[in-house]
Amino acid sequence: MLIALRRIVLGLAVVIAASAILLLSDLQHRHPVARGANAANHRWKLYFIQLNDVVDVEDAAAGVMEGLRESGLKNGRDFEVRTLNAHGDMATVSALIDAAVTGGADMLITFSTPTLQAALRRAQNVPVVYNYVSSGLKAGAGKSNVDHAPNVTGVNLLPANEEALTILKTYFPAIHRVGTLYCPAETNMVVSKEALDKDAKKLGYEVVYVAADTATDVPNAAAALMGRDIDAVLQLPGNLTASAFGSISDAGRQAHIPIVAFQKSQAIGGALIVVARDYRDSGRHAAHMAARIMRGESPARIPLEDFGKTRLIVNLDAARALNITLPPALVRSAKEVIGAPVGNR
């Protein structure tokens, strides 16, 4: 009896020891959602995951770096940053997430809806902070701003439709019918389209949509849009339309149709008026969330944030090309003016 009891005890000890070894081994290969380590004694590997190279993404990334500094964190001491950019190639995005995870990422900071969606699928044990995204919820991050994936938090940036349409109503009352290109495969553009439908109906505007699936579709789609008897283009933000905006701008200039848009890069690219979310400031907000995680807080306890700050930009060079004189009150209200004021009194 005593011998049998000893064997049972010995067997249990072996099982417990083996389980402990397996657990410790697994922990070494796992990235916990919240490390609980203070940033002062742990240098975090932060991976910036970007889809494309546009001014807005550069602004958002610069804002993240500013926000980390504002949070008392120092590059090289508390964290190191590695940037992976797909250069517009959607097929590369998943590979970038895998490379970051394999590289020992402590946190992913994503810039776009596709990079967030890839992180949700492939980096479920790594903290993720997203920005430069219309709606994290529509991208699959959760059910509500407080009920979301336990490893994810971030900043939502729906286009400033009401602000842009109000500017048109105030300063350009002859405009009633607006048009836009959109990519049905981009979740963010579908979400923005739904929001624009509601806002346009509320403010009494008709919206014409033309779909484009690839960059090679954009020139023909833009030309088709200009032929749909529209008074102005109200170009929704999207990854495809941002990278191919030159074709939209050229088509608008040739048809003598003004373009109102939502991304700073499109103001530089020839849009007449841009009501942009402040991507730099939204990046700062995302960084403050990241800093909380780096100091031990779980992403699950950090609500998603709906960011509403905007930046009005007017392009006087585009106005001259269209022979349009922008109202002085509109120009004065702009945060940024592109081009010389000659001819706009």
Quickly count the helices. Answer: 13
Enumerate the strands of the largest sheet in spatial order, edge to edge or round the barrel. Answer: 7-6-8-9-10-12-13
Average pLDDT level: 89
Q: What is the number of strand segments?
A: 13
Might you state the CATH topology name of the largest domain? Rossmann fold
Derived from helix and strand composition plus strand pairing, the structural class reads alpha/beta
SSE string, helix = H, strand = E?
A: HEHEHEHEEHEHEHEHHEHEHEEHHE
CATH-derived architecture of the largest domain: 3-Layer(aba) Sandwich
Determine the fraction of residues in helical runs and give it as a percent range. Answer: 40-55%
Evaluate the radius of gyration: 25 Å
CATH class of the largest domain: Alpha Beta
Question: How many domains would you count in the coordinates?
Answer: 2
Overall geometry comes to: globular
Q: What share of residues are in beta strands?
A: 15-25%
The first-to-last residue Cα distance is 104 Å
- Please give the largest β-sheet: 7 strands, mixed
